Membrane protein (Litoreibacter roseus), 345 residues
Amino acid sequence: MADLTQSPRRHWRIWLNSLKSPWTVVVAVPVLVAIFDPDMVGTVVDFSIRAFLNTLPFIVFAVVTIAYLKAAGAEAMIAEAFKGRETRMIFLAALLGGLAPFCSCEVIPFIAGLLALGAPLSAVMAFWLSSPLIDPPTLLITAAALGWPFALAKAISAVALGLFGGFAVKFVASRGFITDPLRSYTTSVCGCGPSPVSGRPVWTMWTDAPRREIFRTSFRENALFLIKWLALAYTLEALLVHYVPADLIAGVVGGEGIGPIVTAALVGMPAYLNGYVAPPLLAGFIEQGMSDGAAMSFMIAGSVSSIPAMAAVWSLVKKGVFALYLSLGVSGAVLSGIVFQMILQ
């Protein structure tokens, strides 16, 4: 009897969880537009499909690239950044952070091991700040939605933020304010896990059957992930462009000066979804009046403060270091937005 009563509840929970998928929004939006504004449904759907198809070549290239890096074992290269002199480590960690094919939870055991082995927090912070901002897939998605100048500026900002954070932490640590950053850590399964291959990278991965299987698995998983989130992104962008008044966007984060840039950083922290959804939405915001500097500030602050990125930091370090991470991320986002806006003027 207990099984009979529990089974419907279990099925009900499964059904509710399935509604949380981005596909629910992708399907629901055209239906709702057809109900409340039937004359616009064709325009909204056409906008979303065209935007997605324009990005499709970038999606394919990005998925192939990340699958290749995964199968080759490119994660092993990242550990080399944390050897040698501290200044050298900071530079390499900031640079490689943007190339690391880690997911937000996969980086947790990697960083935990480095901190436990005594790697300086300055280099770890440089990697931690630059890593959520850019990687090969998000670089290509950003370029497709916002253009290569914006994408390259974001990549440069990622490295610059890593350097800024790394040397700031080095200065603070040298004054004795950070003595024991690591909280007690216990491993847990997050879904993606560590790389199945270890040791030196094997760039001719296609000669090894297990690595070919890793490539196929990674290709399939990342393709489904990108398609799902970009379908959501372009659906939301279509709504934004056609229904949100341009004057509203321009009044909040438009115009010149530092005000809109700071506002965008503060809004980006809680509002950010992920690096694949944000570029199309920001393209819509810019079209509606958002300044380029504010868009850059929004994207960088949101990347650093996204839930996966913050969860990775919170799970490993104490509250003071976590607060330092957030303050460095937000201040770096504002500085990046100001510099980018000045370059464009």
